[in-house]
């Protein structure tokens, strides 16, 4: 369990300012998912054909799990990938179930969350192959610029 909270390979390579910037982005993505979990299925914007409560509750639990994965250093890239997929599906469901008016109401929030999560995916993509391995690639074995 301790290994999940230790810095990933990419985090070890980051400068201090880069580490701080991407930590802030990760916190923003996690907060966005917590907010999404608190608002799914709410009656703030009534729609004609609401989804069943079990579906909304399941979506809320999944959003909370993805937020936690984004906050854990070793699972950040996996969590960010799942957030992108989740929010894209959310946009689809908002359009199909809620109609164009509800889609327009939520599209900016969903799009911003996707963009921030995609930024995390792009930055931490080198960590993905080492997600479930006991040890990450050491910083000394990383080949830069294709030189061998």
Describe the structure.
- With 148 residues, this protein is an all-alpha fold.
- It has one domain.
- The protein has four helices and no strands.
- The protein has helices at 9-13, 16-39, 53-71, 76-124.
- The protein is elongated.
- The relative contact order is 0.17.
Kindly list the characteristics that best describe this protein:
148 residues, 4 helices
With helices defined by DSSP (H or I, 4 residues minimum), what is the helix count?
4
Distance between the termini: 35 Å
Please tell me the total number of domains. Answer: 1
* Average pLDDT level: 81
Form type = elongated
Series of secondary-structure elements, N-terminal to C-terminal: HHHH
Portion in helices: 55-70%
Overview in brief:
The chain is mainly alpha-helical and 148 residues long.
Question: How do the helices and strands line up, and which of them pair or pack?
Answer:
Layout lengths: L8 H5 L2 H24 L13 H19 L4 H49 L24
């Amino acid at each position: 369990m301790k290994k999940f909270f230790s810095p990933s390979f990419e985090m070890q390579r980051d400068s201090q300012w880069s580490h701080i910037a991407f930590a802030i982005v990760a916190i923003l993505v996690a907060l966005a998912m917590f907010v999404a979990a608190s608002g799914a299925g709410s009656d703030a914007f009534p729609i004609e054909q609401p989804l069943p409560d079990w579906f909304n509750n399941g979506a809320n639990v999944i959003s909370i799990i993805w937020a936690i994965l984004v906050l854990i250093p070793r699972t950040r890239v996996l969590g960010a990938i799942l957030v992108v997929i989740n929010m894209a599906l959310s946009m689809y469901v908002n359009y199909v179930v809620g109609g164009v008016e509800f889609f327009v109401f939520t599209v900016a929030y969903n799009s911003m969350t996707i963009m921030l999560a995609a930024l995390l995916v792009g930055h931490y993509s080198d960590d993905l192959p080492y997600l479930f391995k006991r040890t990450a690639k050491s910083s000394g074995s990383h080949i830069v610029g294709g030189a061998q």
